[in-house]
Specification:
single chain; 403 residues; alpha/beta; Aspartate Aminotransferase, domain 1; Aspartate Aminotransferase, domain 2; 2 domains; seven-stranded mixed sheet; binds pyridoxal-5'-phosphate
């Protein structure tokens, strides 16, 4: 058989999706599994958004749209960016994509290539590294620490930048840590970046509406670097529209034009029905979005309190997004029922097989001390999962080191 491309051989499949698939397979085989792997709201999109989609279908919105997206949607995104983040992007500086993922992928392809480095503070959503590799570039990881709130320190960024660095990825609120960069922290990062004018900032703001602090500032609102920031956003998380595949990017016109050229040769455009629905989502009543964010906050508090009370588990309460990222490394070295835990993968496998709870190992995000728990799930599922985790960790601690 002919071989695959070196690019395909280098790509790692998503480990979150792999863990989710494993949980689904076990459920399908009749096992009782509580799945807290996937980062998608368990709500439905607001009613007025679904109605707009239904109207788009009956009104015949069947055709390709402009590659950059319907002008009415780009106008709505322009208003949204101004209203929510104080950013002034005209529709010509905005491109609509098939989810934030596609917007990010287009940006990597437009900005980085062979010989270039992409600087990724970790723990991070590992699609960044895989997308950088798809573009032919080399991902370079910059570890952050729990003690620093999992935020990249300006001088650490400066030390990690080389003559080849083309992109610094920022994700605030962060998946998986929930860390939010405040204005002073962004200004300090911007001050360092003024020494490196060749470096673009790719700012993933997909979780910006799911926050538990008053403000999530965009790096594009910092004047000294605004002209080299590419803002990526979307409706997947804010409006519970993961399957509708609607994201966008905004940035310097030359970058947006390059992304439009790439998208024109790959996906063509985001789905026409979803684009019409997105106009309603962005211009319409925002109270359902706020209600979902309030529900996530209540779940965060509930899940955090229970998890923090389990001996052997350390964690921070996240400032945004819908994940807890507990450090479980104090349990490494323990064994129970013949299973020895040495890593986040072992711990997740132990929980899945012995307790029927599916989480994602921190190794998938570049931090093997931790695991990721999504609280984008019902209160009942969260309570059930936490009860099982308490019992499974208790069993592990009392079994101790079986030799
Ligand atoms: C940090 C981050 N960025 C982007 C995405 C992708 O969003 P979308 O579903 O709009 O492609 C996700 C999805 O999990 C994410 O966690």
């Amino acid at each position: 058989m002919s071989s695959l491309s070196s690019r395909a051989a280098a790509i790692e499949p998503s480990r979150t999706i792999a863990m989710n698939q494993r949980a689904r397979d076990l459920s399908a085989a009749g096992h009782d599994i509580v799945d807290l792997t996937v980062g998608e709201p368990d709500f439905h999109p607001p009613a007025h958004v679904r109605e707009a989609a239904a109207r788009a279908i009956s009104g015949g919105a069947d055709r390709y749209t402009p590659v950059a997206g319907e002008i009415a949607l780009r106008e709505a995104i322009s208003r949204k960016l101004s209203r929510d983040a104080g950013l002034a992007y005209p529709p010509a500086a905005i491109m609509v994509s098939c989810g934030a993922k596609s917007a990010l992928c287009n940006a990597f392809l437009a900005l980085a290539g062979p010989g270039d480095e992409v600087l990724i503070p970790t723990p991070a959503w590992l699609s960044y590294a895989e997308m950088a590799k798809l573009a032919g570039a080399t991902p370079v990881f910059l570890p952050t620490s729990a003690a620093d709130g999992y935020k990249p320190l300006p001088e650490a960024i400066a030390s990690a930048i080389t003559g080849r660095t083309r992109i610094l990825v920022l994700c605030s609120p962060s998946n998986p840590t929930g860390a939010v960069l405040d204005r002073a922290e962004l200004e300090a990062i911007a001050a360092v970046l003024t020494r490196f004018p060749e470096v673009w900032v790719l700012s993933d703001e997909i979780y910006e509406r799911i926050r538990y602090v008053p403000e999530v500032p965009s790096p594009a609102s910092i004047k000294s670097i605004a002209d080299r920031v590419i803002v990526v956003g979307g409706l997947s998380k804010s409006h519970a529209m993961t399957g509708w595949r609607l994201g966008f990017l905004a940035g310097p016109r030359a970058v947006v034009a390059a992304c439009v050229a790439i998208q024109g040769q790959s996906t063509t455009c985001a789905p026409s029905i979803s684009q019409r629905a997105a106009i309603a989502a962005l211009d319409g009543d925002q109270s359902p979005v706020e209600a979902m964010a309030a529900a996530f906050k209540a779940r965060r508090d509930r899940a955090y309190a229970r998890l923090a009370a389990i001996p052997g588990i350390k964690l921070r309460s996240p400032d945004g997004a819908f994940y807890l990222f507990p450090d479980v490394s104090s349990l490494y070295g323990l064994s129970c029922r013949g299973k020895r835990i040495e890593s986040s993968d072992d711990f997740c496998l132990y929980l899945l097989e012995q307790a029927g709870v599916a989480l994602v190992p921190g190794s998938a995000f570049g931090d093997d001390a931790c695991v990721r728990l999504s609280f984008a799930a019902s209160d009942a599922a969260i309570d059930q999962a936490l009860g099982r985790i308490e019992a499974a960790v208790g069993a592990l601690r009392s079994a101790g080191v079986e030799r």
